[in-house]
Amino acid sequence: MPPPRPIEEVQLADPAALPAALRSWTTPKVVRGLAAGWPLVRAARQSDTAAADYLKQFDHGSMPVTATTAAPGTQGRVFYNEDLTGFNFRREQVPLRVVLDTLIKYRSDPHAPTIYVASTTLDTYLPGLRQANPLPLGQADPLASIWIGNRSRIAAHHDAPDNLACVAAGRRRVMLFPPAQIGNLYIGPLDFTPAGQAVSLVDFAAPDLQRFPRFEQAMQQAQGAVLEPGDALFIPALWWHHMEGLEAFNILVNYWWRPVEAWRDAPMNALMLALLAVRDLPAAQRAAWQAVFEHYVFNADDQVAAHVPAHARGVLGEMDESSAARLREVLRTRLSRGSNG
């Protein structure tokens, strides 16, 4: 298979230019050195121990983190078990200091278990860290999270929000695929997942092309990069990304945001409901509903309801928080009745 082509790299000499750039980007971008001025990155360049000690300054110690651990035989792959009835890892609540000390302890052990603290909210668990390591995003209330661990392989998955991921310690190898490659990545269950998002069942380290032959087509569209401390990666919404921690001590800080109001529902809810209500209809009816969705959702413009007086447009009118709440209540009522209408 061909190697992934490089992710486009852009230069931002002034971090203040980041907000305008983020508003214009629709494809992945690597920004080398964007977070190089962070005290956390400077500590990590000094040593793993210095980075761990820097994090400990912000740990209030009153709330354990969720640590994922897997046996050495998994080779860092955080995944399902063999028959997809469970997972190859376990989770436990552990003080952050214990996690950091354990990672430092196992740094030189070639047979260390996989240790992975995923998506831990910065402001909750490490208050003050974001302020001490700022990044001007120009986005309304982004969710900032930290990811800490040793060598790990996280199966390709996608997220609904846009994502800016900054490597603070260690190195990360990333591989990205456009949303349209969903059919070539062999995605697993939507409602039984290792960490909340559906993942590709392909082992990127040893792809089984007899079982997953279309993965070769996905690789023709793949983009990749290795990120060093201080480097940042912009991942647009719904782009599939495979993440690999390459060192014995890795830290990543990421920011998620959606370009819509917080009161709008998650699109995944609509997909789940469509699976329930639309997918198994007869083909002719499914095609008819496709036309309806195209008209009201995917190709919607200001002409869809232009013929209806503004006061009578209801859910076809401009949505705000109040009308969204009313629509949500209508949906609750209809779902509770099992409506076929």
From TrEMBL:
Gene3D superfamilies: Cupin
Listed InterPro entries: Cupin_8 (IPR041667), JmjC_dom (IPR003347)
Domain JmjC: 101-274
Pfam families, sorted: Cupin_8 (PF13621)
Protein name: Cupin
Protein species of origin: Stenotrophomonas chelatiphaga
Organism lineage: Bacteria, Pseudomonadati, Pseudomonadota, Gammaproteobacteria, Lysobacterales
